[in-house]
Amino acid sequence: MAEENRVTLHGFWASPYSKRVELALKFKGIPFEFVEEDLRNKSSQLLKHNPIHKKVPVLLHNGKPIVDSHIILEYIDETWKYGPKLLPQDPYKRAQVRFWVGFLQQSYETLLLVCKTCGEAQEKATKELHEKFEVLEGMLKEFFPDGNPCVESDDVGFLGIVMISLFGAHKVQSEAIGVKVIDPEKTPFVFYWINALIELAVVKDSAPPHDKTVAFLHAFRSTALKSVAP
Amino acid sequence: MGDDKVVLLDFWPSSYGMRVRIALAEKGIKYEAREENLVDKSALLQEMNPVHKMIPVLIHNGKPISESLVIVHYIDEVWNHKSPLLPSEPYQLSQARFWADYIDKKIYSIGKRVWMGTKWEDQEVAKKELVECLKTLEGELGDKLYFGGDKFGFLDLALIPFTTWFYTYETFGSFSIENECPKLMVWATRCMQKQSVSNSLPDPHKVYDFALQLKHNC
């Protein structure tokens, strides 16, 4: 790799924030070195380059750190002008993408609540999650008025990448939590879109092993449930 | 740009609304300001921001844009012929966005715990956190005139509205931000000398009266 374009990504295999940066770099065809962080024992490099939040992902471009996944994705799009664009050129469409990325993030936080609860609390969170997907369903119909959410690998964009990173593992998430994350009857568009996105070669190659993800989610859920047990 | 119709759905004490007011003023954009009653939201607000039903919402030729920093990006990208708000160099832009995000994650929610807090211990914890954040921001400012360097820019715009709430935080929390972060207050005074800022921000004493009323109603 040429010295003048050295790219390193400090990430964690199960982090959706780290995953989206990895996908953005791959979709753009940008060569990079991946450093897998142990989040219980963070590297001195990570702590040096993200002293405020001390979190993954951190992108190093020629030694200069950029943190926060959505900021990294915009940086990548602005710096590497070749390859597929992550954001549209039109300012209004850019504003819409930025808004919906924020909405997807809130939906994910609801999913985490589903994962960390049981009984009535989980039912309530699941209902809220499905309602958020219904809102997303409405958006997709407007974004893709000809009926087919675009799934060419050169047109996945920021929104598609964020969707993959948060809900690409929805079947595994459903299996681990015991709740249907995306309901194909209530939100067929969303269901079609995410399933088409995860079939893309770049996404399949980057997906972590099924069993490893299930085990991770089980552990995450049981730790969370223990911490609220009376 | 002469045929543009710009409407801002706003609420006078909102720091997020103030950001958009400043951006519009910096660019010299004429707009219709509509004050929303957040207890009784207008049909227009519900139509233009059906997802969150929150202000600020910018309506440009009938098309709505929500979320204050998304709106500021939009304004800078559309009215790009004067007074650039965002740095043009990608790395500097990423740094400005990082700190704006930091402000968004911390100041509003911690500040609210200071002034809305009913337990002294909780208020003290929140106060300490707020001072820490403001000191971090003060460190980022360093010896620069503005966060962006020599000129008022995106990050200054992102933070300055919250200074109208400082009197509220200080009064409810019994502390002085000036004592803790003197350099930040020098920066704030410098920003207030700009008309685009001073015309967009309410009197901190009015903000305090509003907060007092809100707290009594809770």
TrEMBL record, chain A:
It is found in: Cytoplasm, Cytosol. Its main location: cytoplasm. CDD domains: GST_C_Tau, GST_N_Tau. Gene3D superfamilies: 1.20.1050.10, Glutaredoxin. PROSITE patterns: GLUTAREDOXIN_2 (PS51354), GST_CTER (PS50405), GST_NTER (PS50404). It catalyses: RX + glutathione = an S-substituted glutathione + a halide anion + H(+). Its EC number is 2.5.1.18. GO terms for cellular component: cytosol. Keywords: Cytoplasm, Transferase. It is an enzyme of class 2 (transferase). Residues 5-84 form the GST N-terminal domain. One of its GO terms (biological process) is glutathione metabolic process. Residues 90-225 form the GST C-terminal domain. Belongs to the GST superfamily. Is involved in the conjugation of reduced glutathione to a wide number of exogenous and endogenous hydrophobic electrophiles. This is Glutathione S-transferase. The lineage of its organism: Eukaryota, Viridiplantae, Streptophyta, Embryophyta, Tracheophyta.
TrEMBL record, chain B:
Transmembrane segments: none annotated. It is found in: Cytoplasm, Cytosol. GO terms for biological process: glutathione metabolic process. Residues 4-83 form the GST N-terminal domain. Belongs to the GST superfamily. Pfam families: GST_C_2, GST_N. GO terms for molecular function: glutathione transferase activity. It comes from the Eukaryota. It catalyses: RX + glutathione = an S-substituted glutathione + a halide anion + H(+). This is Glutathione S-transferase. Its main location: cytoplasm. It comes from Rhamnella rubrinervis. The keyword Transcription regulation does not apply. GO terms for cellular component: cytosol. Residues 89-210 form the GST C-terminal domain. Its EC number is 2.5.1.18.
